[in-house]
Design a protein that fits this description.
Layout (H helix, E strand, L loop, with lengths): L11 E5 L17 E5 L3 H6 L2 E8 L9 E4 L5 E12 L3 E7 L2 H14 L5 H6 L3 H24 L1
Antiparallel strand pairs: 1-2, 1-6, 2-3, 3-5, 4-5
Length: 152
């Protein structure tokens, strides 16, 4: 079986296996096997021999914006300040899938961890008032064009 044929999807939780050597290829070393959430995009998941994961822990952690509570078989914390790239050879048993709310929280925590918190969204997000002004402008242009066409 080709390693790229291993099917995983963003937001799924798998047990990530520890290998005899501690790491494979260009991945970072993993000290022990543990559950991890796939955070790599699904196109990469389909085509690459590696995936990105954030590991889960059941240990009580200090509250941080990069820590996300996850309700799976054993309530856990996703540690989004530590993103690992691993070989698909490390993918073990399927544990479950995050809820939409948990995935949204992971996305937010990853943006904080990577220092892009709000920067991409805020550039493209418009307030209701800005949208209303823009809508009024387009309506005026539409009426003006209709008037010109009626004169012809």
């Amino acid at each position: 079986m080709n390693i790229n044929d291993v099917e995983v999807h963003r937001g799924e939780i798998f047990y990530i296996l520890n290998g005899e050597t501690g790491h494979t290829g260009s991945e970072m070393m993993i000290s022990q096997g543990r559950p991890g959430v796939i955070v790599f995009n699904d196109i990469g998941n389909k085509n690459a021999s590696i995936v990105s994961v954030v590991f889960l822990t059941t240990k009580v952690k200090n509250s941080m914006p990069t820590h996300v509570p996850i309700k799976c078989k054993c309530p856990s914390i996703a540690m989004c300040e530590q993103v690992y790239t691993i070989s698909k050879k490390r993918i073990g048993d399927y544990i479950g899938k995050l809820t939409d709310e948990e995935m949204a929280a992971i996305n937010e925590a990853l943006s904080v961890s990577l220092g892009i918190h709000g920067s991409l969204i805020s550039k493209h997000e418009k307030t209701y008032e800005e949208l209303q002004i823009e809508c009024d402008m387009y309506q005026k242009w539409y009426r003006d064009i209709l008037e010109v066409l009626k004169m012809r």
